[in-house]
Amino acid sequence: MKNILIIGASSGGHLIADAIAAHKDRYNLVGLLDGDPSQHGNIVSGVEVIGNYDNLEDTIEEHRIDEVIVAIANLNKDILYKFVDVTTKSDVGLRIIPSTLEKNTHDELFHQLRQVNAADLLGRPSLALNEDIVSEGIVGKTILVTGAAGSIGSEIIRQLVKFNPKKIIALDINENDLYLLELFIRRYFKAVEFKAYISNIREIDSLIPAFNERPEMIFHAAAHKHVPLMETAPVEAIKNNILGTLNVLQMTAEYAVDTFVLISSDKAVNPTNVMGATKRFAEKLTALYSQLADGKYMSVRFGNVLGSKGSVIPIFKTLIEEGRDLTVTHPDTTRYFMTIPEAAQLVIEVGCRGQGNDLFMLDMGEPIKIMELAEQVIKLSGLTQGRDIKIIITGLRPGEKLHEELFYEPDNVERIENTKILWAKNSEIITIDLKKLQSELENKVYIDQPRAFLKSYVESYQWDEQE
After folding, report:
1. Number of H helices, E strands in the chain
2. What are the beta bridge partners of residue 33?
3. Does 117 or 391 have the greater pLDDT score?
4. Judgement on whether residues 45 and 18 belong to the same structural domain of the protein
5. What is the pLDDT of residue 130?
6. Checking DSSP bridges between strand 413-415 and strand 421-424, what pairing results, if any?
7. Do 176 and 293 have their domain in common?
8. Is residue 291 in a domain?
9. CATH number, domain with residue 339
10. Farthest CA pair distance, the chain
11. Do 138 and 97 fall within a single domain?
12. Residue 466: pLDDT above 70?
């Protein structure tokens, strides 16, 4: 039988304590710790709040604790780090309740406890969704999500269905993950009509069946996003991120869709790589359609998304599991980070708030050093840097920046009410000749000199190599 200690005697602690009381055959709840002295001595589910969590190490030793459960969401990262240090040193388990964004209403909270991960150490509270605004914008709507099988697209759908849309249209070329997403939605959200379409956004005719469902709102998440790969395959990046986006925009206008939201990237600001340049190109196309069509067209820029496929944390974890050293391109490299649920909820709220020709970004706090992130992942894995595993500096890759930027004109950025959503006033008049562009894409003029093609439309794009 495991001896359990809970940190946090408020609502989360009560819920976990009640759940443990229902599993007395497997768990023995020794007590709770809380930073608020007024909680000390209180009884929770028949168990006492026995002191302050500053005394965690002594409490673990005195009561022979096997596992510590942190029942405080969005805990200060420095305090959480101390818990990681103490439990690692004491060789006891450490789990944490999910954030509000991560909670699954279908499972008991006790069964959603998870290991502490790097996302918990971002050092800022999670984005709080304005449920009133989102509910008003989503209830009863027919919504299309491209790239629906990906990390962001699938999470957007998982968040959308909580607000009772009429129909979700999920479009992707990845049949396996799209099928798994369909199974999840049909299992837990039977009241929402769900239509899955295998489609390639590069081929406009393949979009027709999905658009015949008459979507009222579109979240365009389909894209190639991996910076180093796109440096070696710029033509594919142009086909997917520019031609594909143009196809979806054209269909959006033809079918008189009310709202279009482009998922963009902070790498679109003064881009030094192909992926960033194609995303900036897509932003400009979205702004152009805002000028030409009747609907509301807007873009949302993301920082790096923790936990998404191909992102740094899963790569670090895989290397550790394989017993390999971690690689970091430069000791001073920094990036802005957000979690997958934050990214999805930001997109949804923006879609409900935006009025057209808008550009949004999440206030992600201070950028984080990749080196520090690597050190955190090593520690969270119960390893010691230098003894069990090393961090090797490999040098910046082609097209990679030392530091990312968020906006072209920071002085023109405003905060939306009291939220963490930032809005960039977009006064730029886009003058792209669509007929010329469509002819160039149709005739594949970008094949021989893809970077020069990008530069002709994205003036801020810079690259080092010669074509």
Report:
1. 16, 22
2. 7, 51
3. 391
4. yes
5. 84
6. antiparallel
7. yes
8. yes
9. 3.40.50.720
10. 76
11. no
12. no
Q: 267, 279, 379, 420: which is the annotated catalytic residue?
A: 267
- 67-70 sheet: strands from edge to edge: 43-44, 47-51, 27-33, 2-7, 67-70, 93-96, 114-115
Residue 467 inside a domain? The answer is no
What sections of 354-404 are H helices per DSSP?
370-380
Position 101 confidence tier, pLDDT thresholds 50, 70, 90: very low
Q: Is the pLDDT of residue 449 over 50?
A: yes
Residues 145 and 111 in one domain: no
Residues 98 and 156 in one domain: no
The mean per-residue pLDDT over the stretch 261-276 comes to 95
- Judged against a pLDDT cut of 60, whether residue 106 lies above it is answered with no
CA–CA separation, 128 and 421 (whole Å): 10
The pLDDT assigned to 104 comes to: 55
Please say if 267 is a catalytic residue: yes
Displacement of CA 198 from its chain's centroid (Å)? 23
Specify the pTM: 0.82
Task: Give the per-residue pLDDT at 100.
Answer: 54
What pLDDT shows up at residue 367?
A: 84
Residue 126 has pLDDT above 80, yes or no: no
Are both 51 and 144 inside the same structural domain? no
d(CA 68, CA 238): 49
What DSSP string runs through 176-237?
HHHHHHHHHHHHH-TTSEEEEEE--TTSGGGGHHHHTT--SEEEE------HHHHHH-HHHH
Domain presence at residue 463: no
Q: Are residues 71 and 214 in the same domain?
A: no
The pLDDT score that the predictor gives to residue 80 is: 85
Query: Among all chains, which residue has been given the structure tokens 């790239």?
Result: 147
Name the domain count of the chain: 2
